[in-house]
């Protein structure tokens, strides 16, 4: 599932991964939720990904929340040219903590790293990734930098935990709070 503020490049990243294209300058906001399938070969094994692209706009949040629980992996994007989108990742992580499966794989992506209008340093992203214990990469849907790498890394992690996932998903079970839930709460209460 692709998450993050409106305009950070979720749809473009997915289109870059799926079709290897980028439509410069065009921006059509996602309405609700959309999905695409792609088969990746990871270390000789086929991994079929169904990737859900969500609308970043606030008014669609209640729709997208309903999908968190079934997600096996989440890409949380921010835009390196938009400080607010980076600051908002803490609120997104709090939502993930509330709605997603405890074992969901999370990758934090700083998108638009091709841009000269950058206001968020790579180090800021790395620090946030370390704080929340999630993998981090910078990507560009425009140039394709790290796009295949990010999806392949997540596909590999999914394949590696396939047995556990298939055993635990679909079963309504008590979910322990994440290890970093305290961090999320303290961050929210001070902002
Ligand atoms: N320079 C640059 N621009 C990008 C990149 N990715 C997306 N954009 C631009 O950012 C704008 C928003 O991209 P979208 O992919 O539609 O954003 P989104 O996150 O799906 O937005 P919502 O559907 O509203 O949630 C478009 O004008 C894109 O051309 C990138 O890697 N580099």
From TrEMBL:
**Which PROSITE patterns does its entry note?**
RAB, RAS, RHO
UniProt entry keywords in alphabetical sequence: GTP-binding, Nucleotide-binding
Determine if DNA damage is one of this entry's keywords: no
Q: Which SUPFAM superfamilies match?
A: P-loop containing nucleoside triphosphate hydrolases
Q: Which Pfam families match?
A: Ras
Kindly give the InterPro entries that the UniProt entry links to this protein. P-loop_NTPase (IPR027417), Rab (IPR050227), Small_GTP-bd (IPR005225), Small_GTPase (IPR001806)
- Keyword Phosphoprotein among UniProt keywords: no
Q: Which PANTHER family match?
A: RAS-RELATED PROTEIN RAB
Which NCBIfam families does the record cross-reference, listed alphabetically? small_GTP (TIGR00231)
The protein in question is named: Ras-related protein Rab-26
Task: Give the organism the record lists.
Answer: Daphnia magna
């Amino acid at each position: 599932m692709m998450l993050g503020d409106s305009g950070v490049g979720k749809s473009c990243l997915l289109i870059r991964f799926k079709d290897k294209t980028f439509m410069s300058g065009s921006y059509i906001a996602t309405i609700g939720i959309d999905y695409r399938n792609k088969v990746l070969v990871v270390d000789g094994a086929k991994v079929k990904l169904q990737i859900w692209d969500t609308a970043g706009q606030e008014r669609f949040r209640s729709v997208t929340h309903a999908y968190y629980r079934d997600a096996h992996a989440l890409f949380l994007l921010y835009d390196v040219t938009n400080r607010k989108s980076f600051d908002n990742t803490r609120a997104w992580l709090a939502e993930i903590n509330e709605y997603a499966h405890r074992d969901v794989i999370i990758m934090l992506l700083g998108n638009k790293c091709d841009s000269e209008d950058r206001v968020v340093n790579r180090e800021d992203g790395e620090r946030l990734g370390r704080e929340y214990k999630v993998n981090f990469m910078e990507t560009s849907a425009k140039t394709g930098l790290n796009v295949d790498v990010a999806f392949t890394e997540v596909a590999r992690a999914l394949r590696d935990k396939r047995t556990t996932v298939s055993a635990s998903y679909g079963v309504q079970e008590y979910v322990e709070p994440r290890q970093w839930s305290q961090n999320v709460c303290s961050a929210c209460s001070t902002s």
